[in-house]
Design brief:
two-stranded antiparallel sheet, about 200 residues
Amino acid sequence: MTLLRALFFAAIAMAIAESFAVLALTLARSESLHAARAAARDALGAAPVLVQASIASRIAGGSDPLVPISAIERCTAIGATPCALRSTTSVTLRPGGSESILQSNALVGEARIVVSLRTVVTDGAGRLAAIATRTALLRTFARPPYATYEGDVESGGLAPSALAPGTLVDVLYRNIQSGASISGNVWSTPESAPSAAASPWPQ
């Protein structure tokens, strides 16, 4: 009877020890997942600024801003391990702004570039730990600062439509005599000679 009781308590002790081991493993995995997600978030947060600087440098040098950009590498230290997590952010560039009000004057040369970002985080053994994506929007100009971070695509300065008032500040030029007004949001390069097809000032 004493032997059976001892075996019973030994089995209980082993079950408790196994439960603690499983709990410790679960916590470790949870912490690793949290660290991987944080690394992906940090990589996606830093990438638009790096892409902006690269594109501004290209425009300033007269080169094509849409030439592919190499993947951005980033290491995250955990404890004493200097590169416990490695983040690789791929960058895809494409023209944007089809729904935006752009300043087409030659001195401004405003345009939009859509920046698609995809970050893959791997651990020290090369195993996949997290994947995250983001789509940012850059405004580009023919003059300094050449490129600015506009925000994510959803906040890209949309023109007003039947469904929404738009996200830009509306500017109106008003005829002081007639009271008629026209939109002044967009200004273009002036023609060297008046065009016969030009719309007259509204009366």
